[in-house]
Fold this sequence. Notes:
By secondary structure, the protein is of the alpha/beta class. Helix content is 37%, strand content 14%. The strands form four sheets. It has an eight-stranded mixed β-sheet with strand order 1-7-6-5-4-2-3-12, with helices on both faces. Strands 8-9-11-10 form a four-stranded antiparallel β-sheet, with helices on one face. Strands 13-16 form a two-stranded antiparallel sheet.
Amino acid sequence: MKHELPIVHALQRHLDRTPISWHVPGHKNGTLTPLPDFFKWDVTELPGLDDFHHPEEAIADAIALLRKVYDAKASHFLVNGSTVGNWAMLAAIATRGERVYVQRNSHKSVFNALEWLGIEPIFLEPDIHEETGISGHVSRETLKEAFTKYPGGVGVFITSPTYYGEAADIMSLVQLTASHELPLLVDEAHGAHFGEAFGVRSAFELGATAVVQSAHKTLPALTMGAWMHERFSEKTRRKLQRALQAFQTSSPSYLLLASLDYARSYREQWTVKGMSDIQASHDAFIEALQRFDHMTVLRFDDWSRMTLTYEGYSGDALLHALRAVQLDAEFALGDHVVCILPLRPLAKSEQNDWVHRVERAIQMMKSEGIPLKRYIEQPIMGKIQVSALSCSYEQLEQATGTFRQLDECIGHVSLETIIPYPPGIPLIVRGERITAEQVLRLRHYQTVAVHLQGGEQLQRGALRVIEEGFEE
Ligand SMILES: Cc1ncc(COP(=O)(O)O)c(C=O)c1O
């Protein structure tokens, strides 16, 4: 197959001229740095290199190829990750004060976008897998309930796949949203590799109105490299484009764009047969891991992702033990560790090496080389499937609030968002009434030293909540 890489080739043509820089960026083709080879690809929008916000040449050609791979009516490169894609999708479909149905365990970028864009969220709790306590997806029933209890929304926003690699039942959600003439937006940050060859269909193929995919998460693209595919109306697309131009830099990184070009080409070359061979090598590796006593390996739809648990030990302890043998996993939460494996064949020798490393990690963890943190059973949250914020963004803006000890916060409206990171899903959202389950879980995270973002005085066991008398 011919490898078409329009952006990469435009850059190569540019560099072949051995140009002298009398323009930005300040590193002057890397000559002011000890890393000229690294920097020289970092150029600006010079003649022959097209214009990111008004593409007509190499970038337009690269987008056309991207559209073809994902069979999309329109695609857009994103140079600030899925983060900016989530912002732009929401800005495209809703204006200030309008209501959108949003999966409660969305990424923090979604909550930021909702607040700054002034969009009223109606939260949809995902179902929870009872045995593991791991979050699944928003059910059709939950969405129906939201439509009935809180009518008048202008769109639905969900995340699929989950961090654990489970895909939602997109078809049934597409049917339901279409019957209400609402767009279905999907944060598919972890599913840029989905498609026929991989064996799991992308939400876009299944009819979602717009999806964002972090190419950098699972394909060979530089960090921050992402893209969006959409089938909006012309009018909505114009608004989307205005949002993308407003939210994204006017100086896009060509290193990043070139890597997106490459990631698309990498993905384009997959065949059903080639991928099933890759999957077979992954299966063989997982099987070997499953032979360890007390080890459980969970896999959902995405076979390149695995969730490991080791009985009696916290995910954190396992994550650290794996790190000690140079196996760097994605994140740990509760009793498990999530790992994202490479999308290429795993050679037998590599599989054996990895299995031995895991064995060493387990031995180390057991011999207390690494602090042992017993896993505490977590409470199941999310009894209420559909909910709204307890006060408006205007009220939140005006409130000064007061710090209260965690136990005294129960029943009060939080002025802070608390985010275990990774994975970056808020445990408590600004404007939400704090529940006993949330406090319990927060304490648990503190006990097992989960890294938490937000919470000015959380170290001292306090949260900022709205003062009495100000609420509702
Ligand atoms: C589900 C989900 N959505 C969005 C994002 C943001 O993606 P990016 O890092 O590409 O901005 C992340 C990042 O972790 C994510 O996990």
